[in-house]
Amino acid sequence: LATQSETQLLKRLWQAFDGPNWSSRVQVSDWDFQACSDVCPRGFTGRPTCAGFTGIFCSNGVVRDIGFAKENQAVGTIPAEAGELRASRMFLYNQAQLSGTIPAELFNNNQLAQLEIANTGVSGTIPERISDVASTLAILKLHRNKLSGSIPDGLHVSSLVTLYQNRLCSRYPTHLENADCRIKDVLDSNIILCPYPSPTNDYYPVNDPDGVADNKCRDSSLRNPLPTCTATSTTT
Q1: Closest Cα to residue 6, out of 48, 120, 73, 20?
Q2: Residue 53 and which of 13, 74, 160, 177 are 20 to 30 A apart at CA?
Q3: How far is CA 109 from the centre of its chain?
């Protein structure tokens, strides 16, 4: 059941994303915690009756959806406390002023089924702890950020994953080929260490759909030499 502490966690998110200044920058409804002591009352399903809580949806008294619209212009970093919420879906789209990293604590939430952090200023690596939600995570969208490092071996989704236009450097993610998605949405504009077609496992950049349309890596000899990148993944 939703509790005062869950409402306080939402307030922590609101504060971390500079919520007090949202309505001063653009004309959007503010999250008014003074007028709302419990965002999702016991047993309630629907959008909060408290005015202004755009992006929140309740299911049986629990916060199910957390969304931040482009108009909110969230500023700051994702707080670790976000992982204490039980929301199954979290959306952070087109938040260009969002910075920092994806906190590993975000994956404390074993209810998480859909996570979308896309087209933001978030950097750093994809936390290895994403494997903790492998049994529930169906949709993962982390495209158009500044993420680096490798694609974790424990990253498994049942439906859709998009990682394009980041700075990832990894072995070809064969463990994602079974997902119901286009593999180019994973590889496009990243650097992938291929286990094939040659045994030399040369690095190559994937920057167009045609290069991965058949789910195979192009021969790296067709590309200009690349600087060495650090890839820690052992997936083959």
Answers
A1: 48
A2: 160
A3: 14
E strand spans, 10-74: 56-59, 62-68
The pTM for the full model equals 0.79
Query: In terms of C-beta density within 10 A (0-12 exposed, 13-18 middle, 19 or more buried), how is residue 37 classed?
Result: exposed
Nearest 5°: CA angle at 216, between 211 and 217? Answer: 65
CA trace torsion 215, 194, 145, 102 (10° rounding): 110
**Both structure tokens of 70:** 């482009």
Cβ–Cβ < 8 Å for 139, 114: yes
Pairwise CA distance, residues 115 & 87, whole Å: 10
Per-residue pLDDT tens over the stretch 183-218? 667 777 776 665 433 334 343 444 433 443 333 344
Q: What are 203's strand-pairing partners? A: 193
